[in-house]
Amino acid sequence: MSDIRSLAAELTGDVKFATGERPFPRAISDEEAADLAAAVQRTVDQMADERANAAVQHNVKIACGRGCNGCCEEMVIVSEAEAIGVARWLNRPENAAVKAHFLEKYPSWRDRAGDSPERLAKLTVKNADRSAYTEAHVAYWRTRNLCAFNRDGDCSIYEVRPVVCRDAHAVDTNERCFASYQGEARPGSIKFSPMMTVVGRAHHLLQAAHNALAPDRINHHQALCEAVYRLL
């Protein structure tokens, strides 16, 4: 763990490592990247627990629960470190059935996704048009193309799911979480400043790791399913 802390300190030692304006001075391994992603995810989970406790104290109901698949219909864009972490987990012998299910489901997910993975990935880069991203994101969400890692209503990679999935939540009701919802209002959420800070730092660190791992793909992420399939 001390090695990962040291790596995290190095990667965040200069903001230019995350922006891609300065190359990281040494190579980092896939194992280091996956361990770093796991550490970041644990920190986000701890803060999510604090957010949930704050919700209880303020009589706010978090509507999420097992089998609620609304966010699984959205396109998840990830950095290389998180994708490597998922691929490493899938390649463990005890997760062979999960891997086989994903490989079976991926082709149909990819066919239905069309060019959305590439378009949305391009719109996540620095200085991209955020309104264009939101429009493309919602348009994809309405196609109801369920994530290839969703199995019978459950996230099959829940243990190693990306930070963006760990941050996702809705309050009061989940009726606005699904692509079948016809209204304009998005799900309500808790504006919990400590969580927002932790998630922001997580994305900054993962971006720096991504650039160190893939200097030829600086600031260019991929859809989760697409990235993991490539790595497998």
Number of contiguous helices: 10
- Unreliable residue stretches: none
Structural class assignment: mainly alpha
What is the average of the pLDDT values? Answer: 91
Give the strand order, joined by hyphens, for the main sheet: 1-4
Give the tally of structural domains.
1
Total strand segments: 4
Portion in helices: 40-55%
Which geometry do the CA atoms define? Answer: globular
* Main sheet properties: 2 strands, antiparallel
Separation, N- and C-terminal Cα atoms? 26 Å
Q: Percent of residues in beta strands?
A: under 5%
* H-E order: HHHEHHHHEEHHEH
- The radius of gyration over CA amounts to 18 Å
* Oligomeric nature of the chains: single chain
Describe it.
This protein has 232 residues and is mainly alpha-helical. It has one domain (2-231). The chain has helices spanning 2-11, 15-19, 30-57, 80-90, 96-113, 116-122, 130-141, 163-167, 193-213, 224-231; strands spanning 77-78, 150-151, 154-155, 222-223. It has a two-stranded antiparallel ribbon with strand order 1-4. Strand 2 and strand 3 form a beta hairpin. It is globular. The chain starts with a helix and ends with a helix.
Task: Break the fold down into its secondary structure elements and pairings.
Blueprint: H1 2-11, H2 15-19, H3 30-57, E1 77-78, H4 80-90, H5 96-113, H6 116-122, H7 130-141, E2 150-151, E3 154-155, H8 163-167, H9 193-213, E4 222-223, H10 224-231
Antiparallel strand pairs: 1-4, 2-3
Helix pairs in contact: 1-3, 3-4, 3-9, 4-10
